[in-house]
Write a structure and sequence with these properties.
Layout (H helix, E strand, L loop, with lengths): L2 H4 L6 H9 L4 E5 L3 H9 L4 E4 L3 H4 L11 H13 L5 E5 L9 H13 L4 E5 L5 H9 L4 E6 L5 H4 L9 H17 L3 E5 L3 H10 L4 E4 L7 E5 H5 L16 H18 L24
Helix pairs in contact: 3-5, 7-9, 9-10
């Protein structure tokens, strides 16, 4: 099935596999709310990720660690209500799956009940058993390797991973382990293009890249980065497709001036009472 034939159909994991096997690039966007989800879905994106990056983008935190499962459930509900076509995937936040398989199953189930159609886990070989178990009981999992934001303190910050041969080999082994465990795809973050290409060529599942070069099976960015909501935030791997900050600021300034000058609202934008007169007894004259 070609991509143009599935654009008006709800995208499922088998459809994503089909795109992958037809060598069609998979597009993915991270979003956090109903209104933006509707806009993203109208553009025919393949995957919408409800990311734990909401900690920074929505909540103003410095990293993803404060985000908990209740935050993810709330935002997953919001996003899923705005999606008609795209595949909805949700992040499992920090400490929602690390303590036990039981906690992982419970929390993953909550996200699926909230509207997610798959979940994403950070980790490699160390979570392969969990990925296998979740897959066995019918919970689809995408792995997340390379730069893992939930491991920021271990990595010493948001730094590219896999630059040394040892690190690259470890990431490669993570990819192999997750594929064998049944992950339906891999998110490759912050790794050299050459390493991402080697992984993509070695596995038989889609790889979705962010800051990992053009050779992955698809790409993902945060919607606000694509739209240029914060002109001061532009890491090397981000491309702003518009200046949302400038456009929004200009529109808001125009609105404020119209209010101050008495130009908003105008006559057509105002409500008027019903001029039909009513008798004291309730009947019309």
């Amino acid at each position: 099935m070609s991509k143009d034939k599935i654009e008006k159909t709800k995208i499922t994991i088998p459809m994503l596999r089909n795109l992958y096997h037809q060598d069609q690039k998979i597009s993915a966007i991270t979003a956090y709310d109903y209104t933006m989800a509707r806009i993203v879905d109208s553009a025919d994106v393949d995957i919408v990720l409800v990311g734990d990056s909401l900690g920074m983008v929505v909540q103003g935190e410095t990293n993803t660690l404060p985000v908990d499962i209740d935050h993810m459930i709330y935002h997953t509900k919001c996003v899923s209500k705005g999606i008609k076509k795209a595949h909805v995937m949700a992040d499992m936040p920090f400490m929602s799956y690390q303590s036990s398989h039981e906690d992982a199953v419970s929390n993953a189930g909550k996200l699926l009940k909230a509207g997610a159609e798959s979940i994403k886990l950070e980790g490699g070989e160390e979570i392969a058993d969990l990925v296998w178990y979740l897959n066995k009981i019918g919970i689809p999992v995408m792995g997340h390797i390379g730069l893992k934001p939930q491991s920021i303190h271990t990595m010493g910050g948001y730094k590219a991973q896999g630059r040394s041969k040892v690190d690259a080999d470890n990431i490669f082994n993570d990819a192999q382990a997750l594929e064998e465990a049944g992950a339906f795809g891999l998110l490759l973050e912050g790794i050299p293009q050459e390493v991402a290409n080697e992984i993509t060529q070695s596995v038989n599942i889609p790889t979705i890249g962010i800051g990992s070069g053009p050779d992955c099976s698809g790409q993902i960015l945060v919607v606000y980065d694509v739209l240029g909501a914060d002109p001061e935030f532009k890491p090397k791997f981000v491309r702003h497709y518009m200046n949302m900050h400038e456009s929004a600021s200009k529109a808001l300034k125009t609105y404020i001036k119209d209010v101050q000058d008495g130009f908003f609202p105008n006559e057509a934008e105002s409500m008027h009472r019903n001029l039909v007169e009513v008798k004291a007894g309730g009947g019309k004259k």
